[in-house]
Amino acid sequence: MPLEDKEFDMLSDERFMQDALKEAWRAAGKGEVPVGAVIVKDGRVIARGHNLRERLGDPTAHAEMLAMRDAALVVGGWRLNGCTLYVTMEPCPMCAGAAIQGRLDRIVYGAPDPKAGAAGSCVDILSLDCFNHKVAVTGGVLSEKCAFVVREFFRKLRAGEPEQNRGPGKLPEGGCHAGPDLI
């Protein structure tokens, strides 16, 4: 018996969120806030990204932004029609705005972000009708695993030296490698 469409979508969403989680762990390994993203078109990953704000000294170097830039190179233009962004944490206003401007079909996120989320937690930019493009949103996919990587990162950070004393890309002694084997 074939899977219902909704069940198939859920399994696909979880599979691609696993890829985004691997990117989040890569960010943690570099001393970055562990958010990871992948962009999928026609059932395959075409772009990946993880936070690199500290390493690049760039306030726009969010996982989503970097993945969207790479996806635009792959598709040959800024219009990302037919693409879905999978990201481990609810997008911020900047990333939500870029998703609208880039014409993404859909965003699937893991953990909500009550301090900066723009898909309903803090604000809901993605539900506004004033924009010329509407991005569908699905939240809460593998939310516990997505939240765990962030909690683990900040737990290790608090146990080590304060963030302001770290150089770019440096973690407290021992790193933050509870790791990809947990996903």
Explain what you see:
This protein has 183 residues and is α/β, with parallel strands linked by helices. The chain is 37% helix and 16% strand. It is built from five helices and five strands; from the N terminus they run H-E-E-H-H-E-H-E-E-H. Helix 1 (5-29) runs parallel beside helix 5 (143-159). The longest helix has 25 residues, at 5-29. The protein is globular and about 45 Å long. Residues 161-183 have low confidence and may be disordered.
Q: Which features characterize this protein?
A:
183 residues; alpha/beta; 5 strands; 37% helix; disordered C terminus
Look at the structure and give the mean pLDDT: 88
Quantity of strands, as a count? 5
Query: Based on CA inertia axes, which overall geometry fits?
Result: globular
Strand order of the largest sheet: 2-1-3-4-5
Order of helices and strands: HEEHHEHEEH
Backbone structural class: alpha/beta
Termini separation comes to 29 Å
Q: Roughly what fraction of the amino acids lie in strands? A: 15-25%
Uncertain stretches of 5 or more adjacent residues: 161-183
**Main beta-sheet annotation:** 5 strands, mixed
Radius of gyration: 16 Å
Helical run tally: 5
Task: Give the helix proportion (percent range).
Answer: 25-40%
